[in-house]
Each structure stands twice: as C-alpha cells, then as structure tokens.
Amino acid sequence: MVLESFSFEETFNIAFEYGKNAKPGQVICLSGELGTGKTVFSQGFAKGLGIEEPISSPTFTILQVYDEGRLPLYHFDVYRLSDVSEMDEIGYEEYFYADGVCLVEWGNLFPEIMPEDCIYITIEKDLEKGFDYRRITVQ
What is the spatial distance between Cα 13 and Cα 127, in angstroms, rounded to a whole number? Predict the structure, then answer.
C-alpha cells in the first residue's frame, strides 16, 4: 500500500491511525533517508497508542521504552549500530517477542533479525511534488 502525505500533520495523522490499530507483538521496520520524517511518524504512532510524553528518536540510547499507552512501545533507532551483534547485546528479542509494539527506525540495516511477519514502512521524499511531500509505502 502506498500513502501520500503533503504535510507534517498528514504524516503524523497517518502514523496515528497505525498506532491506534497496532496489536501486541507487532514489529514495524521504519526506513527512509535522513530527514524524511521517521521521527514524525514515530510521534504520531506513539500518540495513537495513547502515549502523551514527548517522543524523540533514540539515536544515542538505541532503545527507548514507553509504558504509558494502551500497549508498551519499544522504540529502537539502530542507525549508529555497526553490527547485528550489538542488537543481541541490547537483548532485542526480549522486546520483539513481548506484548508491546516495536518500532525500529533503520531496521532495514539488519533484515536478518526482523521477524517474518514484520511490517515494513518506507518514507520517501519527492521534491517534484513539494518540499513536504512524503510517499509512505507499507508492506
């Protein structure tokens, strides 16, 4: 499925709907170049889960856990990891197979650990359609 967004708010709202409909145990691999809106998507997704606290990309901490929503959110940002063994050190399986939802920014860097039923969401810019345009592909 391909969705189009022409603003920050539209991207946020698309993600909000995915968060509202998220199910326990889902793992979502979120990819896109720097500046395409992965953090905006993460913020909308978290809001859809009922999480009110500010959401930022856990670039330096790698994992941020949010427990206040209707489901726990395990928000990974694996951009700075150089090897899949670093995911083992974090204990990713404990989160991937828990009752919450995992949102893994840059998860496409480590496809070998993504579950078979992982949802892949790719966000892309197309400047010909406008500065704020985003193509959101869900597989």
Answer: 21
